[in-house]
């Protein structure tokens, strides 16, 4: 019993000691990267893009790239390949990256150090012609306007986000950890007077192995293979939910055409992206548009509640538009197939708000489609729309201008409606021809670019209320102080007192002290911007109702109410805490806000090579991490291995000799069997 209890006591103790010793040894050998953002693999109908490491991670000797001319050391002259290249953002160019990609046998990986301020010359890793093959202009719809033949919308686009790389790539903040990595390089690897550095050398290992390969059809087929008890999913479709709300309630159980219903769709996109996975600030490409639409919806709330307009306004915030218009193509598909409370015949027109960061100006451009306007009835409705918009703009001290009649629409969700039928519509942007956004779909499309700067020493609460230069224009236009708070919440930190008030308590814990990531993500999860816009739209367009928490969360006015849930949504939000109190006063918001699936129809139809719909998927992975350590010379490693093998052989021989002579070495005199005492 004593032995057994001792075993129970000492075995866990020995395990803990062994674990601590192992951790201690590991911490002495490795320095782990704390803030590292990977480039991940995406796939579509034809190919794969992005980056990945080998299954066990890729290891290389650190080399800090100081200039493009210094590439020869990595690609040709350096004696210790492969190299893990550390480069500042000024060298993250197409020229440098294509050379590293071509010489990938000597490149183990790339780490880009994100700067603390935006590059003045601009940077966009997207293509020059966004969503080139998924818009309306094609061989069957005015080929002269297809493939951005008339206007290169994103002239600074270098296409880096749409290349495939055979090595891992990470982004690091320019902080103390990054400086420690560079110091490790200068202490051990730096070339002095052309001489080779001496061992030990500073090395890095990056893990970002991706499970999916080739294209979406291949990975979706592998998802369907169920030979094992635990089948592995290797990729997931990109997607999320669209956020919708109408000025007149719609019955979502009654699908299809509504006789006598005429709807104007007011649209904006919710998503953005950059080269690296978890960095998609989308300040101008996404936030400027949907914040404007939210402010407009709030401004129109009282007007539409007091006197309903002749036409219903359907506010639509589309997700996944960066990746071949996932959200808008889904809504068009649902309308066309009687899976939505309206159909395309109910759509009178579309007004889309795109990139509208004004940068101190008060001028916007109204883009239209020259092809559909050849139809006289469509052209007449478009001209009415423009006149009405101009009339409203005069009251708001805004200048609206039209580009050349022959210029096509910029990349926009409205193009997916035009693919279905000629619908009148306009797209409002801050550019006449090419984008004025110098950082389109990049990590630099951030609050700094919209000139959202704050005086030093302001508390977070004071920053929330502070009217930046960017917010002044919006507040002047919409006469709403909430624009300031929305811009701060999306582009600086979502964890603020106003956002805390208008969200449910179970979501409040997910608010972060950082800018919102506008990457669409995969269909298994709701993204942060989708949920935030859902709650904001309900708060800005809905009404507070005096009902219990139980009834609110069960989508009803009272216990006998069976119908309200079909036309309204109810949200129990945590509210604000009164002065001198820590208890929040929660309440119920009733609105017409709904979430609508933003998943490409290609995945419902299982048409993974579709040319009509988005087919983008994201590879799964098991581990994303990086670490640095010192590595010995190859000769020393071989010597250590040789000594180890020699010791092993000697140990085996000695064991054999001792075992064979055991009867001699370990014999002892035996007592007579009959001995007595």
UniProtKB/TrEMBL annotation:
Cellular component aspect of the GO annotation: plasma membrane
Membrane topology: Single-pass type I membrane protein
InterPro entries linked to this entry: Ncstrn_small, Nicastrin
Primary location: membrane
Subcellular location: Membrane
TM annotation in the entry: 638-658
Any GO BP: protein processing
Keywords: Glycoprotein, Membrane, Notch signaling pathway, Signal, Transmembrane, Transmembrane helix
Residues annotated as domain Nicastrin small lobe: 38-212
Similarity remark: Belongs to the nicastrin family.
UniProt protein name: Nicastrin
